[in-house]
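Model: Ready when you are.
Researcher: Fold this.
Model:
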Amino acid sequence: MPTLAAAEASNAGFAPSYIPVAVFAGGTSGLGQGMAEALARQTKGRAHIVLIGRNAEAAEKIIAGFPKPVGEDKSGWAHEFVACDANSMVAVRNVCAELRSRLKRINFLVLTAAGPRANSMTECGETAEGLDDHLSTRYFSRYVFSKELMPLILSAREQGQHAHLMTVQGAGFGIKIASSDFGLEEARRSSIKFLGRVFVSITAMKAMVRGVAYNDGLVAWFATQHPEIAATHINPGQVRTVGAVIEGGWLLGPLFWVIKRLRNLITVSQDEGAQYMLHGLLDADRGFFIRDMHGDIVSAHVFSPDYKARFTDDSPTARKAGYLNGVPIQGYGGSDATVAALMEYTERVLAEIK
C-alpha cells in the first residue's frame, strides 16, 4: 500500500513530452474535480482538461483555480467545461459526438459521474429514458462514454502516448454480475406492487451493488476488446466530499449517524483521495486493472496486443466468476458468460433510446 507521500512522488514523475488530453465525466465535484485539479497542478496547466458535468458555475470556479502555463510556448493547452446531464443517454451521446468532432485524441478518460440518488439507499425509480436511476449514471452513461470516445483513446495509443480508461467506483470486492434482470425492472415492479419502504430500500441497495459489479464487466469488456490500452476499475474508498457518505435514510439511520460522527477517522480528504486516484491513472501502460483506494493494484493482466477477446466460447471457465477469458482475476466478479450477457443487454436497451 503506497503512502500518500509515495503516491505524490509517483505522480510527480509524470512529465510527458506532449500536452495530455484528459476528460473527466463528473469533473465538477468530488474526486473527478480533485483529480482534474491534481493533474492541472502536476502539468503546471499544460494540459487540455475537459470537465463534463451539470454545474457550470462550479466548473468556472474550478477552472479559474487551475495554474496557467507561463513562458513563450502557450499553445495546445486548454481548460474547458462541457455541460451534460449524465442521466440522459441522448445527452451523453451528443456530448461524445461533439468531442469526437474536434478532439484528435484522449489520453485519459476518467468516469466518476453519479446521479441525484447516487448515495441513497432508500430511494429508487426510473429516469425519463426508462433506466434505473442509480444505474443510469453509475453504469449506462459510463458505458456510453467509453464506447463513444474509444476511437479518441485509441488514437492516443497510435501516437505512442498514454491511453487510459478509468471508472471510479467500488472495485476489488469481487461482486458477481447478475445473470438476469440486469436493469432491475422486475425488482422495481415488485417494489411498486408491494408499496413497501423495505422493498424500495432493498431495490435501491441492489442497484448500488449492481453498479459496482457492472463496472467490473465494463472495464473487462473494453480491456479485452482493446488490449493495447489501459483500462481500470478503481475503488475510491470514503472521501470527504459533498454527498460522498452514503445516506442510510430511515432504514439504517442510526448506524449512519454513528458513521458520520466518525467520518474524519474513516475517510480521506478530497485532495488526498485524488492523489491516490491519480497515482492509479498515471501508473499504467496497458492492460486490465483492479485497484484499491490507494491506487494500488489488487489484480492486473496484460493481454498480448493481437489478442482476440472471447466471451462466448465453451471453455471450462466461461461461466466461472472471477475469471476473465480464462485468466483468474482477484477482486473481479464477472464471468465471460455474464459479461457477454450484460453487454448484449446494454446494447439492446441503449439502442431503444433515441
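Researcher: Now this one.
Model:
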Amino acid sequence: MRAKTDMDTGLEIGVLVYPDAQRAAVHGLTDLFTVANQVACELGDGKLLPIRISHWQLDQTGELCEVYDSLPGVRHDLKVLVVPPSLGPAPAPALLERHRAHLCQWHARGTVLASVCIGVFFIAASGLLDGRSASTHWNYAQTLAERYPQVRADASVALLDDGDIMTSAGLMAWTELGLRLLERFLGATLARETARYLAVDPVPTPLPGALFAPRLDHGDEAVLKVQHWLQGSGAREANLASMAGCAGLEERTFLRRFRAATGLRPTQYCQQVRVGRACRLLEFTRRSVDQIAWGVGYQDPSAFRKVFQRVTGLTPSDYRRRFAVVA
C-alpha cells in the first residue's frame, strides 16, 4: 500500500475486489456511501468530512493495491474493509490464502473487517474468527462449519456486529451492512436519511449496550492486541492481570494507556463486551437468563442483571420480551 500525504480523511471504507466478487455489491456499496455524502451535505453538517470509498485488488505480484479511490492523493486510513459476496461457489482455499496475510495486517492495525454472505470465508481463512460466531448465508453455513470448525457458523443472525469484525448473511445484505456502518461511525440520523433517500428500510437503532462499537483506530498496538483478545474471547476470563500480561505492560501503565486509547476503564470495556454477547443470546436463543449470565462470564446471575440493566436500561427479561427473534 503506497504512502500518501498526511491529510485527515475522516471515514475511509474499502471494498475488496476479488475474482467472482458480486459487482452489484461492490458498486452498490460505493453508490450507497456516495449518496450518504450527498445527504450529509443536504443536512448541512459542515463538520462531517466526506466518506472516502476505495476498492482493493491483488496485483500480479500478490500485493493488495487500490484500483479505485474517491479521494486520490491522500494517505489511506482504512477504518473498514468490506468483503462482498459472490455469485459463485465458496471461494477456493488458494484464493483465500492469497488474501490471508493482508486481512490479518489490516485487522492488526485496527481496521474493522466486514463481510457479506460468503465473503466471510476470507475472514475465517485468516484465523481471526476462531472461537467466534459468524453470520453467513444459510446455503453456505454447513460448508463454513466444515472448513473452519473453530468458527461458530450462524445463518439465523442477519447481521452480526462483533466490534472488530462484522458478518452478514444474505446475498443482498450489503445494503443493511452499509447502513449499519453509517450508523456506527457517523450516527443514526445520517443512516436513517440515507435509507430514506434510497427508499429502503432503515436499520433499527439498537439500545445502548446492545451493539458495542469500540474505538480501534487509536494507534496503541499493545492496547489493540488486548481489544482483539477480548472480542475474540468474549472477555469471559479477563481480569487486570491477564489483560496487562496480554499487552506486555505493567498493570498501572496498562490501565493508563487502555483508558487513554479506548475512553473506558478495562472493567467497563469488559462489561460492554459481555452485555453485547448477552443481548445476542437473549434475542436468538431460548437459554435462561442464568445460563446466559454464566455463558458470558458472570458467576453471579444477580450481578449480571444489575450490569445489564445499567448498560441497556432494561432488565434481561424485558430486553428478551422486546427484541427476541426466537419465539
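Researcher: Key takeaway?
Model: The domain at 221-323 is CATH 1.10.10.60 (Arc Repressor Mutant, subunit A).
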